[in-house]
UniProtKB/TrEMBL annotation:
<dbReference type="GO" id="GO:0000049">
    <property type="term" value="F:tRNA binding"/>
</dbReference>
<dbReference type="InterPro" id="IPR022724">
    <property type="entry name" value="rRNA_MeTrfase_SpoU_C"/>
</dbReference>
<dbReference type="InterPro" id="IPR001537">
    <property type="entry name" value="SpoU_MeTrfase"/>
</dbReference>
<dbReference type="InterPro" id="IPR029026">
    <property type="entry name" value="tRNA_m1G_MTases_N"/>
</dbReference>
<keyword id="KW-0489">Methyltransferase</keyword>
<dbReference type="Pfam" id="PF12105">
    <property type="entry name" value="SpoU_methylas_C"/>
</dbReference>
<keyword id="KW-0949">S-adenosyl-L-methionine</keyword>
<dbReference type="GO" id="GO:0141100">
    <property type="term" value="F:tRNA (guanine(18)-2'-O)-methyltransferase activity"/>
</dbReference>
<keyword id="KW-0694">RNA-binding</keyword>
<protein>
    <submittedName>
        <fullName>tRNA (Guanosine(18)-2'-O)-methyltransferase TrmH</fullName>
    </submittedName>
</protein>
<keyword id="KW-0808">Transferase</keyword>
<feature type="domain" description="RNA methyltransferase SpoU/TrmH type C-terminal">
    <location>
        <begin position="133"/>
        <end position="160"/>
    </location>
</feature>
<dbReference type="InterPro" id="IPR029028">
    <property type="entry name" value="Alpha/beta_knot_MTases"/>
</dbReference>
<dbReference type="Pfam" id="PF00588">
    <property type="entry name" value="SpoU_methylase"/>
</dbReference>
<keyword id="KW-0819">tRNA processing</keyword>
<feature type="domain" description="tRNA/rRNA methyltransferase SpoU type">
    <location>
        <begin position="1"/>
        <end position="129"/>
    </location>
</feature>
<dbReference type="GO" id="GO:0002938">
    <property type="term" value="P:tRNA guanine ribose methylation"/>
</dbReference>
Length: 160
């Protein structure tokens, strides 16, 4: 359910690709939570976190881990106009030590109340909307500045 909600939010902010570590043969998402976003957001799966991070670093991405640590910075202080991967942990166990070791930076969502964490799909939404805000302010969503090739833009606009 959470993965589907994250895919839906990714679509809402203009993210075209989501990567997931899924050791099994096929990742299942809930159509109701994704609300058709599976048609617009490509989901790529990796068997291990090491494989996923190596692939994303190979694309020049900064790797951020949502993790409360002494070195963590407020998620709003990050420059999301750079190619960025945000590692989100499992809701019950958080991010693995292996994933933390592979990350360039830990980020946190500051909290004032008594809770110490948010649902993973809610936390993802907050971070993705901050990234969208920064990218929109930088003009990155203007069609002439799109990172998508023109043919892909046309396919997405008229497919459905």
């Amino acid at each position: 359910h959470n993965v589907s909600a994250i895919i839906r939010t990714a679509d809402a902010v203009g993210v075209h690709e989501v990567h997931a570590v899924w050791p099994g043969s096929r990742m299942r998402t809930m159509a109701s939570a994704a609300a058709g976003s599976n048609s617009w957001v490509q989901v790529k799966t990796h068997r291990t976190i090491g494989d996923a991070v190596a692939h994303l670093k190979g694309q020049g991405m900064q790797i951020l881990a949502t993790h409360l640590s002494d070195n963590a910075v407020d998620f709003r202080e990050i420059d999301y106009t750079r190619p960025t991967c945000i590692l989100m942990g499992q809701e019950k166990t958080g991010i693995t030590q292996e994933a933390l070791a592979l990350a360039d930076q830990d980020i946190i969502i500051p909290m004032i109340g008594m809770v110490q964490s948010l649902n993973v799909s809610v936390a993802s939404a907050l971070i993705l909307y901050e990234a969208q805000r920064q990218r929109q302010n930088a003009g990155m969503y203007l069609r002439e500045n799109s990172m998508l090739p023109e043919a892909e833009q046309q396919r997405l606009l008229f497919e459905g």
